[in-house]
């Protein structure tokens, strides 16, 4: 952990040699409906990104497939030239089709093209962090990641990528990646209701590797959602605030990347994640995903 002080909830974490705020921002929701096309309100999207920087958030998550290219171009417009402290993570390994689907694009030529497109659209000479997206829209799928991951390692050796991670990955794929090259993060679906990676999170924490959960309120059953709402009402907080605060308190290696296209929600998320949950509240929340 870095000792850099920040007023954001959760303090900071180091991804390799990059210090980032544990409270980050995911840019996916800045694109149009279905993460396709431009935002309904372009100026508002730019304003949200500038507020992200003004709040002191130093970890922004994006992907060339968002839009496609839309969120990258918005980030560049809003924040380039980038502050030295700001670090942008992107993903490769999926593209978009005309129906809004996310077909895999993990052949070596696909990945090389995606890395160069990310460099171009973000206006960078080197990408801070590139996650290899595995599986499909339904979740992780078993199988070797050796060929695509080795392609990214080759691009890293060429100086185009600083650090590598994996996304939508099984525990076996995380282990395989680590036999090929160091990784600084794993980005998977995880939240109060969806706890498949509990063991993996603890293992990664011991190794100093970040875990970046997406969909902090995804995959809840009505019963689980009701249990969360009950705790939130008692604390006079929103369910999202409780979900984010729980993630920050779950393990020190968890980095948050909640997304929003609203300035109000952005500020609410930052404030809500700072909610301090008691041992009793944590125990009650812990039952949701069990």
DSSP helical segment count: 10
Q: Any low-confidence stretches, pLDDT <50, length ≥5?
A: 1-5
Our measurement of the CA-to-CA distance between the termini, rounded to an integer number of angstroms, reads: 30 Å
3D shape: globular
Q: In terms of structural class, how would the helical and strand content be classed? A: alpha/beta
- What percent of residues adopt helix (DSSP H or I)? 25-40%
Strand content: 5-15%
Q: Profile the largest sheet.
A: 7 strands, parallel
Total count of strands: 9
Gyration radius (Cα, Å) is 18 Å
Average pLDDT figure: 96
Note the run of SSEs as H and E: EEEHEHEHEHEHEHEHHHH
Strand order of the largest sheet: 3-4-5-6-7-8-9
> What's the multimeric state?
single chain
Report what the structure shows.
- With 290 residues, the chain is of the alpha/beta class.
- The chain has a seven-stranded parallel β-sheet.
- Helix 1 packs across helix 2 (70-79), helix 7 (222-234) crosses helix 8 and helix 8 (239-250) packs across helix 9 (263-273).
- Helix 1 links the parallel strand 3 (25-26) and strand 4.
- 39% of the residues lie in helices and 15% in strands.
- The longest helix is centred in the middle third of the chain and has 15 residues, at 108-122.
- Mean pLDDT is 96; it is low at 1-5.
Give me a quick take on this structure.
This protein is of the alpha/beta class. It is built from 10 helices and 9 strands.
Core attributes:
single chain; 290 residues; alpha/beta; seven-stranded parallel β-sheet; two-stranded antiparallel sheet; 10 helices; 39% helix; 15% strand; globular; disordered N terminus
């Amino acid at each position: 952990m870095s000792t850099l002080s920040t007023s954001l909830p959760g303090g900071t974490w180091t991804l390799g040699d990059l210090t980032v705020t544990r409270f980050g921002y995911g840019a996916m929701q800045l694109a149009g409906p279905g993460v396709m096309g431009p935002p309904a309100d372009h100026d508002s999207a730019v304003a949200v990104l500038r507020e992200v920087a003004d709040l002191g958030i130093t970890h922004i998550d994006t992907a060339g497939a968002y839009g496609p290219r839309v969120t990258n171009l918005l980030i560049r417009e809003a924040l380039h030239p980038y502050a030295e402290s700001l670090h942008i993570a992107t993903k490769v390994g999926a593209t978009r089709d005309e129906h809004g689907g996310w077909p895999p694009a993990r052949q070596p030529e696909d990945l090389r093209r995606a890395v160069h497109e990310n460099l171009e659209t973000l206006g960078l000479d080197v990408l801070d962090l590139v996650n290899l997206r595995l599986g499909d829209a339904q979740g992780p799928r078993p199988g070797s990641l050796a060929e695509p991951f080795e392609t990214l390692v080759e691009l890293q050796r060429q100086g185009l990528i600083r650090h590598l991670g994996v996304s939508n990955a099984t525990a076996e794929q995380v282990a395989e990646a680590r036999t090929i090259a160091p990784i600084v993060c794993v980005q998977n679906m995880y939240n109060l209701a969806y706890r498949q990676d509990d063991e993996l999170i603890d293992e990664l924490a011991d190794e100093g590797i970040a875990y970046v959960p997406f969909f902090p309120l995804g995959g809840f059953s009505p019963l689980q959602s009701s249990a969360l709402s009950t705790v939130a009402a008692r604390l006079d907080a929103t369910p999202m605030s409780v979900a984010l605060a729980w993630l920050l308190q779950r393990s020190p290696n968890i980095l948050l990347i909640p997304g929003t296209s609203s300035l109000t929600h952005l500020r609410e998320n930052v404030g809500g994640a700072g909610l301090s949950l008691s041992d009793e509240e944590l125990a009650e929340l812990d039952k949701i995903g069990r």
